[in-house]
Amino acid sequence: MPDIGIIGAGTAGLHLALLLQQAGVPTRIYTNQTAEQVASGPPQNSVSHHAPTIARENAMGVNFWPVDEYGYQVHYHHLNVPDGPPVFRGDFLRPSRVLDYRIYLPRLMAEYEERGGTIEQRSVEPADFEQLARRHDLIVVAAGKRSFAEYFGERPDVSPYAKPQRHLAVGFWDGVAQTEPRAVTMSISPGHGELLDLPITTFDGWASALLCENVPGGDLEVLMTQKESEDPEAYRRLTLEKLKEHHPTVHERIDESRFALMRPGDILQGAVRPVVREDYRTLTDGTVVLALGDAHATVDPVTGQGANSASFEAQVAADAIIEDGVVDERFAQKVALRRRERVDGLSTWVNTMIETPTPPHLQKLIGAMSQMRTLCDEFTENFSYPHRNGDLVATPERVDAAIARHTEIGHDPTDAKAH
């Protein structure tokens, strides 16, 4: 069996390492942070793990957070426009889960080590690849820092944006009542941005991860540009004010006397440019350097897919390593081919969702979802299969076909309402 060096201890790196470990393939993880540093650091994200990822965790024996206790199975949607539709609902077939990654990643790091794996704390740069190739038969880069992004280079056909399309702020907030049933709420304020209210399990119990996807130049951009750390109370009041104006169905569940970050500093502010990069490169000695997870595709979090895509890519790579037992360029081409439909389809979906102004066919789809429960259910279930939503929103003709298909199914328009 080949020996695999994995750079990065996020979802992509850990899932690949655990999958290969189960198959008896030797691996070593390189990361610049210990599990203790991850656990005590700032929030990493607010990503949901959807059913295929959770099924993979079950198969690896690392699903320590069962969905019957920690999960949710519903999306609520609200379009904040005058005389707009009431809140409308879509259901998953199987539950999803949101967990603070300061809990998740250290637990998986510990499990990998307890099963005999080695995690080496060191910072790696592309200049180190030749040296690592003397130790390993394959180098997998599963970390998203800039030097790795530049090393692989972009695919312009699926990387249309020169800069971020949303300015982000995500905080873990107390004082936001959970919906019944527990659900993710997606609120849209046209021209200003989206809010995802995610029920997240933190060190201190349930919280709401309020992910504000703010349009640059819009009224909500200040949630990213005004730094919470400079005046936490002013930022708290600002958040309440903006939620009340732009995302009222979330604001109405807030107890303002309790509304506060779960812990000081439980917030991330910044921006992400969505990019898909080349799949691999080869070193002078022929060793393949494979891009995985964030190193391969960086996605805006509006659809909550980063970790799910990373886990899927880890499975594809692990399967090919185990099947072939040879990690040459042919292997790398196989991985590239197998993951492309999903990665490119996800890119289409994300890039359409964050296009400004909102494309008319996406507006039409959202309007139809508010009236057609079966269409809203399909869109929601496709969070588990994101390339399907990429297919759905790719062209106006595809949106029209989806609406026609659900019209033929037959529906009661009132069935889409949440209340």
Automatic annotation (TrEMBL):
Domain of life, per lineage: Bacteria
One Pfam short name: Smoa_sbd
Residue ranges crossing the lipid bilayer per the database entry: none
Family matches, as InterPro entries: FAD/NAD-bd_sf (IPR036188), StyA_sbd (IPR041654)
Residue span, Styrene monooxygenase StyA putative substrate binding domain: 144-253
Protein's UniProt name: 2-polyprenyl-6-methoxyphenol hydroxylase-like FAD-dependent oxidoreductase
Native organism taxonomy: Bacteria, Bacillati, Actinomycetota, Actinomycetes, Pseudonocardiales
